[in-house]
Amino acid sequence: MGSTVNANPLVTTTYSVGGINANGCANYTTTIVTVNALPVITATSDTICIGQQTATLTANGAITYTWSPGLSSASTTVVTGNPLTTTTYTVLGTDLNNCIGTITTTIQVNPLPVITANSSSICLGQQTATLTANGASTYSWIPSATLSSSVGATVNGTPTVTTSYTLVGTDVNGCIDSKTTSITIYPIPIASLSINTNTICIGSPVIITPSGAGSYLLMPGNLTSILNYTLMPVANTVYSVVGTSANNCVSINNPTVALTVYALPIISALSDATLNIGQTTTITAHGGSTYLWSPADGLSCATCATIAASPYVTTMYIVSGVDIHGCKNEDTLFVHVEYVCGDFFVPNVFSPNGDGLNDHINVHGACISTFSFQVFNRWGELVFETTDLTNGWDGTYRGKPMDTGVFVYRVDGVTRTNTPFSVKGNITLLR
Which of 50, 251, 309, 343 has the fewest other C-beta atoms within 10 Å? Predict the structure, then answer.
């Protein structure tokens, strides 16, 4: 009862109302409360990849809309958003009757794929690099000119210079990520080979030195080294080398050096001999171009092929012969010396007249080691003295020729067998 009442029917309803005035008169009327249906709001959902796209949401079923939480607009039919995580949104729609409907919708945010790819390194022109991708469903490679394919999880590459590649991977949600990888190109070493000499004599060493790489393989023989090779080949040989760099790249130029190996000369020394002290024998060397005899004692020439030998003791002579290639070899021989000394004497007459015959006088003997030869005049005065077998008396005294006469001599000495001897007598000087 009362002049004002509230009604909230669920459907449209007609109400009757009666009233009595002050005079007690009564009347009635009807009124209708119309109940409008709420608008049916619809809204699209969307899916994006984080950071790569903007989602679009569209509402229908009303005249005006209110969106929350924040999007590109809070009151339009179509809104956009790019949240970082999956987010649920509420939209309120108001129709012509100012009735309000509501609905929720979602923007699904998918993570980006985590792309991985190996890098690789190869030697220029010698190998093929393999690049393998993981973390997505499909892949594309940029640039692809030096790759076996522009798509695929595994590709092969043969660039000629170090190259960087961009790998783009797409997962099952269509989300895309990229990664940079590379193929590093190592240069091919250029090996070189030097030799300290191109000719040797057999038995002599040769030094071969490679360069241009880090380690080496010398052929023939498959000899490995990082510095040089000291070899003693026995035959002519052509050597080649392959060098390997620190990056395991192998040289392809294959340098060579040639070595000539000469045989040693066959030196012969002829021949062994036996002689008495003071005698001479001839010895000869064959097989070389030049010679050197050792020891040189008792030899007429130390560098001749044929020489006279008159040693005072038994001696082994070594002759070294060198041929036209500079190769050297040697041989030996023995000269045996016997000590049959015989007598020591001084001739009893000489004629120092300058005719070249019998002009000097001295001691004679086969094995004199040291001696003293003295000559005295008839008054006992010393007129000559020597200790040299090659320095005889020429019949002068104090630079003047002496007259014909008889002189007394005395010789005291020691033989090569350390035996002392002494000789005395007279000398007749004839003019």
Answer: 343
pLDDT in tens, 121-135: 999 998 899 999 999
The phi and psi torsions of 385 (rounded to 5 degrees) equal -155, 140
CA separation for the pair 159, 43 (Å, rounded): 53
Q: Which residues pair with 362 in a beta bridge?
A: none
Contact call for residues 190 and 170 (beta carbons, < 8 A): no
Cα–Cα distances (Å) from 224 to 114, 210, 238, in that order, read: 46, 11, 17
Angstrom distance (rounded) from CA 15 to CA 33:
8
Q: If phi over 0 gives left and psi between -120 and 50 gives alpha, with beta otherwise, what is residue 324?
A: alpha
For residue 214, give the DSSP letter: S
Omega before residue 159 within 30° of 0, cis: no
Average pLDDT over residues 193-215: 96
Bridge partners of 413, per DSSP, are: 371, 421
Pick from 177, 169, 175, 116: nearest CA to 138 = 169
Given 3-state DSSP classes, what are the helix, strand and coil percentages for the chain, each rounded to the nearest 5? 0, 50, 50
CA angle 275, 281, 287 (to 5 degrees): 130
Closest among 210, 211, 206 to 230, alpha carbons compared: 206
pLDDT digits 0-9 by tens, 40-90: 999 999 999 998 889 999 999 999 999 999 888 888 999 999 999 999 999
Length of the chain in terms of residues written: 431
User: Is the bond preceding residue 233 a cis peptide, omega within 30 degrees?
Assistant: no
**CA atoms within a 13 Å half-sphere pointing along the CA-CB vector of 7:** 16
Comparing CA positions, the residue from 117, 106, 245 lying closest to residue 186 is: 245
Rounded percentage of the chain residues whose pLDDT exceeds 90: 81
pTM, full prediction: 0.63
User: Kind of pairing, strands 46-49 and 100-110?
Assistant: parallel
Per the listing, tokens 């030049």 go with 290
Residues in contact with 186: Cβ distance below 8 Å, sequence separation at least 6, in sequence order: 121, 122, 123, 124, 245, 247, 249
Return all residues near 151 (Cβ < 8 A) that are at least 6 apart: 138, 139, 140, 141
Structure tokens belonging to residue 259: 């070595």
* 224-254 tens-digit pLDDT: 988 899 999 999 999 999 999 999 999 999 8
Instruction: Tell me the average pLDDT across 203-220.
Output: 95
